[in-house]
């Protein structure tokens, strides 16, 4: 009798805290979990407790991303080259220099820090992580793996922590942060290491005054590379202690962005500078600090490299640290790297913070969780069922003694101890907007001053917080879309999210057409006729988009502004605009026409004939016409491409997991994980949603059990 009472109580708790209610839902088992896999490869985990969620989620991730996940954990140990060899070529995107990753991971001491972070976990979080890793290992034992992946097993909680450290290191040193440009110089580019993160996102929260039903809405639209460390995995958790629908990066055990009955949030990569390089004055094995010579902390290690025949060859690695942080040599100079969260002011509670963000009872509780400041990076865009909306310039910004954003974006004098920061600003000191009169908040990776209207005043914050520049054109287009619709329905939000209008065309095309027509150049005149008929969008059927995009590339891209005037803080919503050099613009256009004629590509080729949503090869290949463009065209539908072997342009970056949420008595949501919910080419979910993306369509999120049962593909039951 007691067991029945416990089961009934658990079921009631899940209905209160889950992503929906359904009177016909059978109660969960008192111990363990049940995983319902829908036709899109999304696991819906129903569990009696959080530990059972963790176990089931570990098994689910291993089923859908085994080779990728294990390889990333091997790299987090600083032993990727030991298991896989010096270079890994089997990924979807670029070859990875495993040896360089190992050197970087060891130099940053992530293996040691991973042990410390593991020891720092609270008892409940450690129990959850133990269960997650147990699920990973038990699933790995039950499925086919490559010999390399098998050699990495068993996995440990320290691997999860090391991967978390490495993930944040990539954000903090390689994102759009103002200081990332100098920090990323210490290691090779993404093509070699998979670490130099290219990141972005669109995030909106609409308050009751901006929606048709008077309920808040959320647009969660991350942009990352389509593979490797940046792969998203979509899932639903339903348990009394942890209930959320959303997605996380493969290898992380908790949901990073998501929603439930009460609220939802998305992160956007921000311009926060949490990383600085200090240029050291060096004399052998010592460096100068305040006029005194100080010896480096030093140790010697060996990185093992697996040779083609299987033998292991040790490669020496000398590690140095100064009072600033880890020491690197680059281009004949010596630098020390100081990074918040993963090196200084460490944040071992970041996973638990995400867990508690999901479980916060109301807006105030959510803010209190965020104020722990365990996430050292990211903006947060938030909306809830009570109609609250919030945007905050999150992460950890060091309290610096002097200088503006431009000063700290370059290496600073490491011999001056007065430039070494030792604490960070509180969240309450950072730019943020809650429940504004405009009825909306947003960010698309630009500076924080334009979260809503009226804009924030940068003078109210230290000058190093973020530069005074205009927002990205993608963000300007997003603000236009928000203001063009008086009150949004969910269908309106879907349409806005997929908007492909190229804002740059609105800004420069009239001048380009006039200059081409007046030039008397036959090729430029031909191109002008095509561009004049173009709809200024990057739809798959758009004719002229290919020509315009390639002209922008020939001009050096919209971010290389010798050709486009404006882009300044004084004109934040209308610049850049116009042509700075019409003659150069026409010359580039005519040259492009000549080149397209040479290779036999008609000027009015449909965009989707060349730009493609592709994944896989051979029998597993998925291939559809693409739509959308990158930041260089000012498109809100963000997709970037790379030339494929056949000359087509293959999407490799941009829209990944997307959730559009309408709060209310019944939560409604549209979702898509653009490239599919598995990185395994043999899995049916691999690339399975690219056809939806090609149509600019989304799925209804399955939030209640009856809906999941109606789309059921298979069922798993676990006792743990």
Automatic annotation (TrEMBL):
Which SUPFAM superfamilies would you find in this protein's record?
N-terminal nucleophile aminohydrolases (Ntn hydrolases)
Asked if the record carries the keyword Protein transport, the reply is no
Q: Offer one Pfam family short name for this entry.
A: Penicil_amidase
TM stretches of this protein = none
Keywords, alphabetical: Hydrolase, Signal, Zymogen
Please give the PANTHER family that the UniProt record associates with this protein: ACYL-HOMOSERINE LACTONE ACYLASE PVDQ, PEPTIDASE S45 PENICILLIN AMIDASE
Q: Which family does it belong to?
A: Belongs to the peptidase S45 family.
Instruction: Kindly provide the name given to this protein in its UniProt entry.
Output: Penicillin acylase family protein
Give the organism the record lists: Janthinobacterium fluminis
